[in-house]
Design brief:
51% of the residues lie in helices and 3% in strands. By secondary structure, it is mostly helical. It has three domains: 63 residues, no CATH class; 41 residues, no CATH class; 34 residues, no CATH class. Strand 1 and strand 2 form a beta hairpin. The relative contact order is 0.04. Keywords: Signal. InterPro entries: DUF4148. This is RNase H-like HicB family nuclease.
């Protein structure tokens, strides 16, 4: 009983909306066209069944409505071949949180695959000593991330624990006074 009332209410609201759209001459439809569209929507279950979630009748009760034809994609053999290639190359995602691939997590296991593929230029990284020095500097300055959710650094959360960056000082009071006196002399003041 409730579904019939919902269908009737939706049908009426669709007709009212149709009148509002009919005011636009570019989108003008005849009454028969609107009724045909409504009948088609009822037949396909494309009307909204639940106003809170926006779910349609064909989503809530799929057994009552004809399912759309599935477009043929790749064959099973093609999909298996692609999967085998991805496994061989390490292109599958190893960590769902970071999105890191297996070839990034364990590069030594996929070194032979890289040797077979055409060479790509790789930037030369830092030495171990450079990385250690950089880490020590980051620890000393509090440039390490303290909170993974917000991305806040230690020196932002606890500014009194870390040295503050040196701000370039402007001119001293005496220099400003000297410039003002010089400016007055030059302008005849």
């Amino acid at each position: 009983m409730k579904t019939r009332l919902s269908v009737v209410a939706i049908a009426l609201s669709t007709l009212v909306a149709g009148h509002a759209l009919a005011a636009d001459p570019a989108a003008a439809k005849t009454r028969e066209q609107v009724r045909a569209e409504l009948a088609e929507a009822v037949r396909n279950g494309d009307l909204i069944a639940d106003g809170e979630t926006g779910a349609r009748f064909n989503q809530l009760f799929p057994a009552l409505y004809a399912q759309p034809a599935v477009v043929a994609g790749k064959s099973r053999a093609d999909v298996k071949a692609e999967l085998a290639e991805a496994v061989r190359n390490g292109d599958l995602i190893a960590d769902g949180e970071t999105g890191a691939k297996f070839k990034d997590v364990a590069p030594a296991q996929y070194a032979t695959v890289r040797a077979e593929t055409p060479a790509t230029t790789v930037a030369v990284g830092k030495t171990r000593e450079q990385v250690k020095a950089e880490l020590a500097e980051a620890i000393r300055n509090g440039d390490l991330i303290a909170d993974g959710e917000t991305g806040a650094k230690f020196n932002q959360l606890y500014p009194n624990r870390y040295p503050q960056p040196v701000v370039a000082q402007g001119q001293s009071r005496e220099e400003v006074r000297a410039q003002a006196v010089e400016s007055r002399r030059a302008n005849g003041g």
